Amino acid sequence: MATEASSEHDLVIKRKALAAKLRAGGVKLMIKPSEFARSLYCKNRTTETTPTPTSFSDPGPIETEIHSKHSQVLYDFVRKGTDLEGFKECVRELHEAYHGEALSYGQRPPFRCANRFGESLLHLACRRGRTDMVRFLVVEMGSSPREMLNTMDDCHKTPLHDACWTPSPNFELVQLLLELAPEQVVTRDVRGNTPFDYVRPDDYKLWLRFLWGRRSLLQWKEEREA
User: Fold this and answer.
1) Distance in angstroms (rounded) separating the CA atoms of residues 223 and 52
2) Which pTM does this prediction carry?
3) Would you state the pLDDT for residue 27?
4) 113 and 91 belong to one structural domain
5) Are 112 and 143 in contact (CB under 8 A)?
6) Residues 69 and 121 occupy one common structural domain
7) CB under 8 Å to 34, separation ≥6 — which residues?
8) Which pLDDT does position 42 carry in this prediction?
9) Residues 192, 115: one domain?
10) Structure confidence at residue 170 (pLDDT)
11) CA angle 81-156-114, nearest 5°?
12) Same domain for 51 and 71
């Protein structure tokens, strides 16, 4: 991991040097939001601490059973996006039905609904830009928001990947995810893309302005909690 961090740091320095030469020659440049996010994250990391890779687990039997039996109803709530309270009530009822014993002992097992490929209710809510539904799922339906966001599909896409892969920017949703799981800005899918590689080029200026204003969020979570 130390070698990887050093390599990333060297790349940032080389990109800055190249950008400076091009600007001196009158060439206008616009850094990609994905590169800018990675450079901010790298800069905010301390030299004393190296984060371990985020570990993701495959969907469990309860997650896939909920998907098999109840995904049509749950996904309809997300697709329509007009009945937040109905969505919450449905999720709470299913959480009680599948995790009632654990809940009665004060435990908070995560509520997840995913098919065998890892495509989940949370991924869909992020892709549809349902900020309030995402906030409800990650804040109220598990032992911790970070645990709830610790999921990916078989293409290794995280919730942040889907939140960035939208027709228009949803800054409120992306800020929520950065506050709770900032390490996902450097998580690569099977194509080697990080979440901000999926934002539309037409929106680069908007995303760069957004990232600059939230640069303090782009830190390894455990560093911020220390």
Assistant:
1) 12
2) 0.81
3) 44
4) yes
5) no
6) yes
7) 193, 194, 195, 196, 197, 199
8) 84
9) no
10) 97
11) 45
12) no
- Same domain (yes/no): 21, 1: yes
Block means of pLDDT (10 residues each) for the chain, length 226 residues?
58 60 53 91 65 65 96 97 98 96 88 94 97 96 89 93 95 96 92 96 94 87 46
Give yes or no for a contact between 181 and 160, defined as CB atoms under 8 angstroms apart: yes
Position 150: which residue type?
Answer: N
Structure confidence at residue 14 (pLDDT): 63
Domain presence at residue 102: yes
Phi, psi of 172 (to 5 degrees): -65, -45
Could you identify the residue written with the tokens 């994250």? Answer: 41
**How many helices and strands, by DSSP H and E, does the chain display?**
11, 0
pLDDT at 143: 85
Domain range spanning residue 94? Answer: 61-151
Closest CA to 177 of 196, 197, 192: 196
Q: How far apart are CA 193 and CA 32, in angstroms?
A: 12
How many domains is the chain built from? 2
pLDDT at 52: 46
The whole-number pLDDT of residue 173 equals 98
* Dihedral, CA of residue 82, residue 87, residue 88 and residue 94, to nearest 10: 180
